[in-house]
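Recall the central idea of this unit: under ordinary conditions, the amino acid sequence of a chain determines the structure it adopts. In this exercise we apply that idea directly, starting from the sequence alone.
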Amino acid sequence: MDILVCVKRVPTVGGLVQLTDDGQDVDTRMSGFTVSPHEECAVEEAVRLTERDGGAVTVLTLGPAAAADQLRDMLALGAHHGVLLETDGTEWGPIATAAAIAAAVTGFGPGAFPLILCGNEAADTGDFQVGIRIAAALGRPCVTGIKQIEVAASALRASREYRGGQEEFELPLPAVLGVREGLNLPRYPSLPGRLRAKRAEITVRRPERQPEGLRKELLRVPEQPRQQAEILGHGADAVPALLGVLAELKVLPRGSGGGPA
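Accordingly, the structure predicted from this sequence is:
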């Protein structure tokens, strides 16, 4: 079975998120780029399924020319083909993105990619829409939040966690799934895999951006809870104050707060 995995180029942010001066984008001048953990797990699962049952894995992304680097990272993990829907680098919203991907899938011919995997949500913007919109455009069933997949000849079983329990779904193929981190443990790329990915040819297409009817006003970074530390003292001089704090927290028995019981 041929499987399509949709991935997104997202900033590698190890600290506080910084916005550009106009508040329209995340400032990525000091960061690298990667693929979100959800999508890494999607690629790993697709590779495992094709290793077991045969077929090929195609990874697809929509973004600037530099996004080919993220496709090669996924090819190094075992994917077979890479497709770049090249843009001018401006951010596309979920409506235009899903429309471009659905059109690309249709362009591969009837019945292409019986299974399409997407990350459950974008790691940078938190959008949950693209996979669902792709399914709607292609007329396919879709389930999100998936953490287990079993594929048979013409159907699949998928499950997800829900309120301490587990929900199971049976879907006919072709279908679209949104998967979450924890579905599996992605492998590390091997040296032969990296060399193969470096030489691999990336298919490049330039989709026409469809109007979305949406307009971004401003990005906002939520305020983080502030933490304060208080120095109780230095050396042995801090012991009475420490005992007092422990007594207030009821860690010590009453009467042990630094004074005589």
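The mean pLDDT is 87.
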